[in-house]
Amino acid sequence: MRDLPFTLDQLRxxxxxxxxxxxxxxxDSLYVSQPAISLQIQNLEKQLNIPIxxxxxxxxxxxxxxxxxxxxxxxxxxxxxxxCRALEDLQNLQGGTLIIGASQTTxxxxxxxxxxxxxQRYPQxxxxxxxxxxxxxxxxxANGQVxxxxxxxEVPIELKEILQITSYAEDELALxxxxxxxxxxxxxxxxxxxxxxxxxxxxxQSTIRKVIDKVLSEHDIDSSRFKIEMELNSIEAIKNAVQxxxxxxxxxxxAIAKELELGILHWAKIENVxxxxxxxxxxNPNRYKSRAxxxxxxEILTLFVTPPKEKLFxxxxxxx
Length: 320
Hints:
Blueprint: H1 8-20, H2 23-30, H3 34-48, H4 64-88, E1 97-102, H5 104-121, E2 126-131, H6 134-142, E3 148-151, E4 164-177, E5 188-189, E6 198-202, H7 207-218, E7 227-232, H8 235-243, E8 249-252, H9 257-262, E9 266-270, E10 276-283, H10 291-300, H11 308-319
Parallel strand pairs: 1-2, 1-3, 5-9, 6-7
Antiparallel strand pairs: 3-10, 4-8, 4-9, 4-10
Helix pairs in contact: 1-2, 1-4, 2-3
């Protein structure tokens, strides 16, 4: 086999330039000089005998050949990282890295608690959490950049045959109101009452917004009739807006545990309606599954699906 016309360092540099958007920012992120970055790319282009970047544009823009190389570079580097994790695995959880992915709400409110429990048991394992949209996280699992993920939205159709998707746990969605709201005095409200509320919602492109609209529709609740006062891009912003009396909102129960305990938000129950969504665990069965991944799945993820009282007891015991 002839010598390869590129090195792993050159591929890492290529990815950094595209990610950072310029040679200078890539050099800063890799802690090398910009001339060194430029020289490596020039050598790479000479070795491959193709231009990688368009020279007429100030921004680092890839040519067609550059895009093709970037695609393969991502796969090559992901496989290298997978190899390193497999070798680290030989140390029997005395080291290594576990990369977990999660969609926005799950990653913000559930996963940090579960990662905390895992770190108490296996402090030598480096755990990384990546929180993005369900779509981005699904692609990261498919490409081997994430070991496993817990998501609340739909996996892209093109990945459903690639990924192993396992139903994990039900996540209840709560209607929250300011504690001073008139409806907060009632034990239950009717479905028709929803059309009288002013709502704070996530933007229409967010995965959880689509899930909420779908689940409401299954309960004969037409969310298109809601009076949307404003759209925000974070659950925390929505909770603060509701607390300030700006409107009502649907959020995951896992996101409001602290607020309910402190009595600063009201969970309004809708008569004869319980709104839930299914969380799923996704992995790529064709990728190496590390011992840390298997241990996290077996020992930690199962804590969330045990009966509430037992789960609370287990978590308290582990946190002591």
